[in-house]
Amino acid sequence: LALYVLADGxxxxxxxIVKGCGRQCITIxxxxxxYWIVGVPLAYxxxxxxxxxxxxxxxxDINSYLCGDVGLVAGMTIGTWCHMLLxxxxxxxxxxxxxxxxxxxxxxx
Length: 109
Description:
Low-confidence stretches: none
Number of strands: 0
Oligomer: single chain
Number of helices: 5
Shape: elongated
């Protein structure tokens, strides 16, 4: 759960940068990819398909750990990490910070 909270907190902060720059249009494709293409299908697979919905899987290896409720949380946590990483890549890879500083300065003056 701590891994989820870390990624979600960073994602919210980066989303604030996106909104501050006025580039909200980049968030929808990122959310669709992160949650609807990665997170939800992975959570469904880990929860219901991989171990036929068993909440207590047998064995002590990693393959038997991600099942049931833990698989659901793991899938959505991976989706949240994907959201945070894609958003960070979009913001820090494509933002012209000098231009954003100039626009912010114009708004203040």
